[in-house]
Amino acid sequence: MDLWRASKAISVALLLICCVAARPVVVPLATKDFEHQTQAATGQTTGVWYILFSSSEEPSLRWLQDVWQEAAEADLKETPRIQWATVDTATDPALGDRFSVTAPAVLLLRHRKVFQYGNSDLSPEALRRFARAPDVPGRAVPPPPGALDLALQALRGNELAVLLLKAAFVALAVAAAAGVTLACRQRPPAAPGILPRFAGRRSADG
Known about the structure:
By secondary structure, the chain is α/β, with parallel strands linked by helices. The chain has two domains: 22-144, Glutaredoxin; 155-187. The protein has eight helices and six strands, in the order αβαβαβαββαβααα. It has helices spanning 2-22, 31-38, 62-74, 93-98, 124-132, 147-154, 159-185, 194-205; strands at residues 26-29, 48-54, 82-88, 105-110, 113-116, 139-140. The longest helix has 27 residues, at 159-185. This is Thioredoxin domain-containing protein.
């Protein structure tokens, strides 16, 4: 029985080790899973997130991605655990728009606030120090984009499609307003009240 328990404990431990090892040191984030992963707008219950906004279309930023990976690996032994992540603004510009940043940028999501790294020192040591003790004031986390914002962002670069979409929304609003006006005009007249009937009876009696 003791042997069975020991083997079971070893199996669970190995499973946990495999799960931890399977998770990348630096997590790639995109609009589709950003809120699920970070809980940025709903309390940040998944912990502290440290995010590099970079661009795959800028070869000059490759070195910064390597530095970010090095800093994240060096930070693994520290506690509490910080989630290191990246956002590719070339393929997902919506997140850059949401946080009003362009690549390269570094944001720390902590205590329900956003702290933006502004130091010119981009060494692994400096980046790790900021993650543990940000030296700038934080700002409120901007809310996720709405459905219309996402639709417009998806059509970015296609000016004709954006104009047509905006025109469709305007036409829909005008049609709705016209429908309300027409319904008001077609409303049946109110039934005669007691006062007019009473007044007519009094006139007849007179």
